[in-house]
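Quick start: read one record
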Amino acid sequence: MLRLHPFEYHRPSRLEEAVTLLAAHADDVMPIAGGTDLVPNMKHGLFTPGHLVALGGVEEMHGIAIEGEELRIGACESLAAVARHPEIEAVFPALARAAELVSGPQLRRVGTIGGNVCLDTRCTYYNQTRFWRKALGYCLKKDGDACHVIKGGTRCVAAHSADTPPVLMVLDATLEIAGADGLRDVPIGDFFTSDGVWNRSIEPDELLVAIRIPIPPEGTSVSFQKLRSRKSIDFPLANLAVRVGRDASSRVSDLRVVASAMGSYPRRVGKVEDAALGNELGPGVIEAVAEQAFRQCHPLDNITVDKEWRRAMVPVLVRRALSEIAEA
């Protein structure tokens, strides 16, 4: 049986109190919201904080509302709430879909969108029990000095496995982050780094408070596609978000593709817009974009499924996304 280690549990009700607790117990504290990822990782000995700061009662981290030209989502709103919120379904249906495809219904009712954005990276050699990891030899991400994915690698390449960040990236979301020095805004495109050990530009004593998304201009469509072994529960083998903007003559004026679950961070796929801008979104354009995405995406061997098959599925996901947008 996997057991949790002893720790002290704190339940602040205000953001200032939560940030103060994180600073007071620096280097031995972690925040917890839904805990759907953190608690299993603690049972595996991947994290052993002496203090947990629960965020569910922090008032400033709740709420979903359109404020001016932006939608603001509190980081502690559950994925289930995001998936079924009427304004999100109406204005950002791809975000609602991404939230709805995270894990299963039980975990979506507990897990939060802030936790999904800050989800720890995953790897075949990392997300195992302490006994398993010790038998193989600890990895670069936890307790070891060797990467088992890239032999001789000096940088962790554990996979980014969250579903909502690709959609938030194509939607130009901004993250509100609180720390001892107050609030700061970080564009989500600048939030992630390539280091799988800690792939987020947020300090351990800071908190993601809310996500703000600008209302997209008329003619904008977004699609989210997820590849996984089963229809529910599973982390993605690959996922991507596609944003298409069209002008008054129905020609493509903006195209963005963000792919994830292949490396340590979600990244924008380059050069896909070259074949689409100024053209109607027809079969030829869709195929050209899909082929370019295949050339740009190179999944790593950091999860159990064959990386070449995952790469072959990238153009399939692009075709599905663009066809969905074209038909709509």
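The domain at 61-118+159-214 is CATH 3.30.465.10 (Uridine Diphospho-n-acetylenolpyruvylglucosamine Reductase; domain 3).
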